[in-house]
Amino acid sequence: ITGRLCGAFGVTDATQALKSGYDLLRWEWPPFIEGALGLPVTRLPRVVTPGTVAGVVSRAAAAESGLPAGATVVAGMTDGCASQIAAGATTPGQWLSVIGTTLVVKGVSRVLLHDPAGRIYSHRHPCGFWLPGAASNTGGEALGRWPRDALARYDRAAARLSPTGVAIYPLEGRGERFPFVRPAAAGFVQGILRSDEERYAATLEGVAYVERLGYEVLQGLGASVSPVVLTAGGGARSETWLQIRADVLQRILAVPRATGAAFGAAILAASAGLHPDLETATRAMARVERQIEPRRTYATAYDGGYRCFLNACRERGYTCP
Predict the structure, then answer these.
(1) Cα 230 to Cα 53, 70, 211, 257, 315, distances in angstroms
(2) What is the pLDDT of residues 76-101, one digit of tens each?
(3) DSSP 142
(4) Average pLDDT over residues 158-169
(5) Residue 126: which of 53, 178, 196, 52 has the closest Cα?
(6) What percentage of the chain's residues is helix, strand, coil (to nearest 5)?
(7) Residue 3 above 60 pLDDT?
(8) DSSP 253
(9) pTM of the full predicted structure?
(10) What is the dihedral of CA 86, 91, 95, 101, to 10 degrees?
């Protein structure tokens, strides 16, 4: 149970504390809060790891909330981290790609990833690991130029036309924050498009190229990436896009059965009593609905498209590995 009840116990979780100035390396409120700001750290909440038992529901709280008196109250986490748990990414090396309006990647690392460019942020994992994440400015928004009710038809065309051999960076606006930081970055088309259907197919490939570059950046910073990548969001509803992404990444894409933050919170709560830790609880409760295998016969063609994509990025001064 998170939010008001947790606050009533004077407790906050380590993922929420990340953006409040709490030092997740030293596990303390930094001295400058008191020294420079004049705020006594003794008045600040006690910070605990997500999944820590904070107390029980009092009779007064039960009367107000409808929860049973005596129910265990467990420290929660941000909705994004809870959704990651729901998908099943809680073990080092596991990653989740979410394609909604933008492309977001979230994973688990044994070590804190230090990124001088500031592309990566990290929450603290309940088992002592790290939860790094990053977000691109491209993603599903790139499909906004096509009518929603026509996407199924364009998907069928893309399945026939891909690989296109055309490299698109599908930025709708200005600026990029991951896999590189470039406030003035603009989208581009490298190659000749022969139809609107081919543009659509190349756009699907372009987001997949950004995703592949993102994982290469993460690996370059010391992250381990499993051969199986979990995926969620609206982009995971397109079978054609899933197959293109699996082919570009040359990794298996796994679609979880559930990705809601409420289910992730339930897994977290279960780790506080029903299971010995979060990883065990996740293995017992999270499920994969289906997997998409990469087609090895397409690897060479997509590798060529990806090299063209990287070269076009470098020509524009966008930092790439």
Answers:
(1) 29, 37, 13, 11, 32
(2) 999 999 999 999 999 999 999 999 99
(3) G
(4) 97
(5) 52
(6) 40, 20, 40
(7) no
(8) E
(9) 0.91
(10) 30
Question: 40-50 b/e with 16+ CB inside 10 Å = b?
Answer: eeeebbebbbb
The type of residue at 192 is I
The alpha carbon torsion through 24, 233, 85, 93 (nearest 10 deg) reads -70
Tokens read off for 96: 């989740």
Taking residue 110's Cβ as centre, other Cβ atoms within 10 Å add up to 14
Q: What is the pLDDT of residue 321?
A: 61
Distance CA 1, CA 3 (A): 7
User: What tokens appear for 137 in the block?
Assistant: 């400015």
Token pair for 222: 């010391």
| Residue with tokens 């994992």, as numbered in its chain | 125
DSSP designation for 163 = S
Cα-trace Rg, the chain: 22
For 21-45, give the DSSP string: T-BTTTTB--THHHHTT---GGGSP
* Structure-token match 């986490």, residue found: 77
Residues in CB range of 90: below 8 A, 6 or more apart: 84, 108, 125, 127, 278, 279, 282
**Which residues partner with 182 through β-bridges?**
176
